[in-house]
Design goal:
Blueprint lengths: L1 H7 L8 H24 L16 H18 L1 H8 L2 H15 L7 H32 L5 H19 L2 H11 L12 H40 L7 H15 L2 H11 L3
Helix pairs in contact: 5-6, 5-9, 6-7, 7-9, 8-9, 9-10
Amino acid sequence: MARHIGRHLGGVGALTPVVLGRLLILLALFTLPVICHAQSGVAVPKIDIGVGQAKSPEEVSSSLQILLILTVLSLAPALLVMVTSFTRIIIVLSFTRSALGSPQVPPNSVLIGLALFLTFFTMAPIWNQVNQNALQPYMAHRITFQQATDTAVGPLKDFMLRQARTKDVALFIGLSKGPRPKTKDELPMHVLIPAFLISELKTAFTIGFVIFVPFLVIDMVVSVTLMSMGMMMLPPVMISLPFKILLFVLVDGWHLIARSLALSFH
């Protein structure tokens, strides 16, 4: 039988008895839990999603809340970028990689993952406030959905106001041509979010410039040295890249950048 299967899988290679035995063991490992569940009578859960006719105003309200939650989940990546520290962190990390002169190392997946976890770390106190003051009371039916939404917006608004520059907030208040808010609670989110974003961009570019300076000095020293030696055909990047990596490792660059980013939001 092994030879018969091996002829059908000729493009893969000969299926020896050892390989066949390993395949049978893997098959047994995958099917054993299913057989055990079936014999023990444990019910496997099944998920059904259906659409029916609402028979009361409460069901209509619940359906609208579910639709709203699904809409918010679909916009979660954009909200993560707009109202959290993700924008500043990912731009600074991208500047660091560009300053090192290695556009592919670390890869984009590593940078985005690091930026996400640093975002979770810096935003954890705010999310804890939202969970304790808005989400948990709403899940316990102590407050309404509108009250939970208003309570959850408060910590986020305080965070964005601390990071946004007064000049940027005043710019979008003037562009909105609406009534001038007297307190921070009256400041609408559609004015605060763009002001917060451009403030984050300015701060991230400022940090990126500071990161670029020492690596630029290394590039200039290497270029001048190569020109003085008459080696003008040799690309300076090939010589400066090991020195920049060595300097970054010696000063523990990733530790310094993560620490600076975390402290910049306090």
